Amino acid sequence: MRAHVETGEVVSIIPSAGREAGSSDHTLNPALLRSNLVVGFGATDSEDVHPFFTLRSQLLKHVRATDQRFFAIASTQPGNGKSHVAINLAAALSRIHPTVLIELDLRRPSIGRTLGLSPDHPGIEDALSGAASLQETAIRIAGTRLTVHRVRDPQADPETLLASDRLRELTRAIHDADDRPICIVDTPPTVIHDDIMLIAPVIDGVIMVVQEGRTSKRALVNAIKSLSPTPVIGSVLNRSISAPLQTADYAYYYNPMEQRQPA
Ligand SMILES: Nc1ncnc2c1ncn2[C@@H]1O[C@H](COP(=O)(O)OP(=O)(O)OP(=O)(O)O)[C@@H](O)[C@H]1O
Ligand SMILES: [Mg+2]
Question: Which protein residues touch ligand 1 with a CB less than 6 Å away?
Fold first, then answer.
């Protein structure tokens, strides 16, 4: 069951976080990463991480071809695996390139919990409201080139924050950083609210996470329309949620550089 999304290469995951510790930053807990299926930092010879390496390679090709560096991970429904893909792709990217992971699912944030980040640190919602600077919301992951801006507390009124000029200012500041990071943005589901339409204008391209048996053609087509003119540059078929949790069930496919609709 390879679904209608054209297959690229199969990839997969791994845990085992530690590399040399960085400066002042947050040190990840390998056991927590393992239990939360965060494999992108792990051993390169694990087959679990390969899907994310493949996705990374395709994305880097796109970056080189276009000079674009801001990408959102989106899906039509809750629970399709957006955050899973965003975190693991960002982790895999950060092994070879400065990477910033930004959580803009202000309603149901999960990145802080998944990575075990301190709840005391200001969140991106504080930067969006003007209560904190980007420097204050940045959490650098020790021993990696990953910086995370996660949401600390779920927001009841994300539209106001996302519609403010601050979003554009903050993303521009991240984009213009000297180390030219690649930014991966985790987003809320497209079918539930219109948050994605407020996020799309600050994004260069979208990677759609499609879940086998759950993502409908109609919802996907509507999502692509609502993102427009921001292009969908690829798709990831994430079928592991409906299947038992086994290594072989991690399967991702990437369709680079095309705006694609399901058959
Ligand atoms: N390929 C996979 N294999 C196993 N479990 C997965 C896979 N992808 C996602 N999951 C698990 O499914 C759950 C939902 O995934 P995730 O939180 O990434 O979805 P989401 O699209 O971000 O959801 P939401 O819309 O609520 O933000 C999580 O517990 C995650 O660990
Ligand atoms: Mg999520």
Answer: 37, 75, 78-84, 105, 108, 110, 189, 238, 240-241, 245, 250
Domain assignments of the chain as residue spans, ordered by start: 2-256
| Dist CA 89 CA 84 (whole Å) | 8
Please list, in sequence order, all residues whose beta carbon lies within 8 angstroms of the beta carbon of residue 31, skipping any fewer than 6 positions away: none
Please, which residues have CB within 8 angstroms of residue 227's CB and are 6 or more apart in sequence? 74, 190, 196, 197, 200, 206
**If you take atom 4 of ligand 1, which residue's CA is the nearest one?**
240
Instruction: Please tell me the distance between residue 36's alpha carbon and the centre of ligand 1 in angstroms.
Output: 10
Distance 105 CA to ligand 2 centre (A): 7
Nearest to 185 by CA among 76, 92, 111: 111
Q: Which pairing describes strands 70-74 and 182-186: parallel, antiparallel, or unpaired?
A: parallel
**CATH 3.40.190.10 assigned to 2-256:** no
**Ligand 1 atom at minimum distance from 13 CA:** 1
Which residue from 191, 189, 101, 204 is spatially nearest to 151, judged by alpha carbons? 101
* pLDDT tens per residue, range 62-108: 999 999 999 999 999 999 999 999 999 999 999 999 999 999 999 99
Query: At 103, is the secondary structure helix, strand, or coil?
Result: strand
Q: Please name the residue that has the structure tokens 């510790």.
A: 21
Nearest CA among 74, 146, 92 for reference residue 117: 146
- CA 48 from centroid of its chain's CA atoms: 17
Q: How far apart are CA 150 and CA 112, in angstroms?
A: 6
Ligand nearest the Cα of residue 77 is: 1
Question: Global pTM?
Answer: 0.86
pLDDT digits (tens, 9 = 90+) for 150-202: 999 999 999 999 999 999 999 999 999 999 999 999 999 998 888 999 999 99
